[in-house]
Amino acid sequence: DVAGLFVVPATIDLAGAEIELVSMVARESRLRRTLDAHLSAVAREGARYDYVLIDCPPSLSLLTVNALTAGREMLVPIQCEYYALEGLSQLMRTIEQVREHLNPDLALGAIMLTMFDGRTRLAAQVAAEVRKHFGAQVLRSAIPRTVRISEAPSFGQTVLTYDPGSPGALAYGEAATELAHHGEGMR
Fold first, then answer.
1. How far is the C-alpha of 45 from the C-alpha of 40, rounded, in Å?
2. Domain ranges of the chain
3. Which one, of 176, 105, 100, lies nearest residue 143 by Cα?
4. Is the four-CA dihedral 107, 110, 113, 114 of positive or negative sign?
5. What is the CATH number of domain 12-180?
């Protein structure tokens, strides 16, 4: 438990959502309408969320398009691995399509380098390439590849509660601080 953190985890039911969405009217904006209704209800109670983070599957599916349509800014995690650059290029093309047809206000807020293994040249090369193309939009903090980050979900915890002093937890803390100082970004 983390004070002030509210999580709505996905269940196995989400697996069929893509199939159900395909035949729906305005299928790309279902999440946006639901989220807007929830945020309005919370505001009527005199409360608000500082941030709403929507975790997406690592594919450019209808669920991901819904998240891009619902969001204002994106935090894009990218693994420091070879195929991640290709995936990022595909994502940027999808973002342009979403901007053009569904959500003209969608902005790239930040890119977060993850699974960074400082012992490999590949991780450094991927990080350098991402920084070259996206500059200040790339967070300075890189999330290291660690066993603790991998273990935490199997215990139903975040790395911040599982091992708060681990390098991974500390890196996520640094990234959160960077995002908080990012101004109005990611809200």
1. 9
2. 12-180
3. 176
4. negative
5. 3.40.50.300
Per-residue pLDDT of the chain (187 residues; tens, 9 = 90+): 677 888 887 888 888 888 888 888 989 999 999 999 999 999 999 999 988 999 887 778 899 999 999 999 999 999 999 888 888 888 899 899 999 999 999 999 999 999 999 999 999 999 999 999 999 999 999 999 999 999 999 998 899 999 999 999 999 999 999 998 875 444 4
Report which of 67, 54, 68, 72 is spatially closest to residue 109, judged by C-alpha positions. 72
* Residue labelled with tokens 């066993």: 147
Closest residue by Cα to residue 187 from 131, 107, 114: 107
Tokens coding 178: 């960077």
Tokens of residue 31, six digits: 């999440």
* 3-class DSSP assignment, residue 71: coil
DSSP notation for 25-62: TTGGGHHHHHHHHHHHHHHHTT---S-------SS--H
Structure tokens at 94: 């999808």
